[in-house]
């Protein structure tokens, strides 16, 4: 390859997260609503009929489809579908930091305001229930954080002879912080709690 050709190819390359083309991409919306006692965060309880994570607490969201022009469009579309509202009632949508999951996912979170919350009609095939928690609760309550440790387990045919140390190679330990908020009998945890904590850090 000629040097000029090599330089041209490098010049045209737009950097991204290495391997991200193989990641599943999701978008979620952290919904805020105005109540008489202040701003509340709205949560969904996933339908018990769902195959993945039935009964868990989450925000509206889902996989980004080819029909979605942007990650923001996907978050709004999913919110419309799950809460049974019209798009015009979703205002002030702002991006939060996107997240890389160790399970091969990129999550694009957004925060937005739901006008006319009395018009919400949750889609029963996806949403079992909805509830709200005052934003002030999260502003005044730090999450409980626990760590999950992952064990490195190479496949049986792993070529230990090709790496320094062989079977005694000193693998780097990996951990994952899991966040928990408890509000009465409601337990908000996992990615939902982590996204929520990120918003609170911004607001503080």
From TrEMBL:
Cofactor(s) for this UniProt protein: Mg(2+); Mn(2+)
Keywords: Hydrolase, Magnesium, Manganese, Metal-binding
Entry-linked PROSITE patterns: NUDIX (PS51462)
Residue ranges occupied by any Nudix hydrolase domain in the UniProt entry: 23-154
CDD domains reported for this sequence: NUDIX_CoAse_Nudt7
InterPro entries: CoAse, NUDIX_hydrolase-like_dom_sf, NUDIX_hydrolase_dom
Entry protein name: 8-oxo-dGTP pyrophosphatase MutT (NUDIX family)
């Amino acid at each position: 390859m000629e040097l000029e050709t090599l330089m041209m190819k490098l010049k045209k390359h737009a950097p991204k997260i290495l391997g991200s083309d193989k990641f599943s991409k999701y978008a979620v919306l952290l919904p805020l609503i105005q109540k008489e006692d202040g701003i509340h965060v709205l949560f969904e309880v996933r339908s018990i009929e769902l195959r993945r994570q039935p009964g868990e607490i989450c925000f509206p969201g889902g996989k980004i489809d080819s029909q979605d022009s942007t990650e923001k469009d996907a978050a709004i579309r999913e919110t419309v579908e799950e809460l049974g509202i019209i798009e015009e009632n979703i205002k002030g949508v702002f991006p939060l930091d996107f997240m890389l999951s160790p399970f091969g996912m990129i999550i694009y979170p957004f925060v937005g305001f739901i006008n006319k919350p009395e018009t919400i009609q949750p889609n029963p095939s996806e949403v079992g229930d909805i509830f709200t928690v005052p934003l002030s609760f999260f502003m005044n309550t730090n999450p409980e954080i626990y760590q999950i440790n992952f064990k490195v387990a190479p496949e049986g045919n792993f070529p230990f002879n090709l790496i320094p140390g062989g079977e005694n190679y000193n693998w780097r330990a990996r951990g994952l912080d899991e966040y928990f908020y408890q509000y009465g009998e409601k337990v908000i945890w996992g990615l939902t709690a982590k996204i929520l904590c990120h918003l609170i850090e911004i607001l503080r």
